Fold each of these.
Amino acid sequence: YKFSSDHSYYSTWVIVASINAFYSFLWDLKMDWGFLESNAENPLLRKKLSFKDKKIYYIVILGDLIFRYFFILSLSPQIMNSFIRPEFFTTIVLSAEVLRRSLWNFIRVENRHIELMKEFRSTQFIETAFVEDENGNLKL
């Protein structure tokens, strides 16, 4: 069975697949990576970041969006088989998906680490009865 552009379900499939890819992309940003916080310091990102260079995050976001739409092609390889040999197509699409998932995991682990660090808040300074003498030794 060939999937052709004149098929009555073709446009519906393209719309549904595109909506799914974009929704999954937004889910990655908000739920998995903790991005889309409203703050002026890091637009579209979260307040706490591990890397100082914010370009890394924007590149990963753009890559996730592109690779999510690229993966749609693997769901219907008949579309691309007219342009490229199936073996090359499969290799390219699946390699891109491995890269996307690797980037996803990298940012997800970073976000989870930051979330866990929030639970272990630093304690406030508590005054004790101990006093240091001139040698740095503690005494009552």
Amino acid sequence: MRTLIFVICGVLSLAATLAQADEATEQAVIKAIMDATAYNRENLRGKPDTVAAEGSLEFWSSGGLLHEVPADAPEQEFESFSLNPKHITVITLVPGQIAVAQYYSEGSMHLKDGPMISNYRTRATQVFVKEGGQWKVRAAHWSPIAGGAGTTQTSVDD
């Protein structure tokens, strides 16, 4: 009986530790999304060093084919940027290492040398991996919400 109680206590302790790790991962990924958005808004350019070392595979809200975004891709530059992520949900796959975030992104933005998008509304799914102590994007899918607009961007070089 004593052994059974010890095993049950160990299992409960492990479950509590895993739950805390999931919560920490969730909060860190949400912070990475919010920090990148704030950086874009304040600097009118994409936050540097947010793509995984192996790059990111992405479907953009402009539609079209799968894009391979290298880690050293130039940051997007904006004339204006007022997007807001909403309702962020994070699924932890490996605590402290891999997670998937799903959320909505709404607002307006104007890419340099591109058209103004005043009704940008998309669903976003991003896969994050932790590298060098930072959460970085390894894959993403952006799809416009009915009635909203995506970007017209068709390549990293735009």
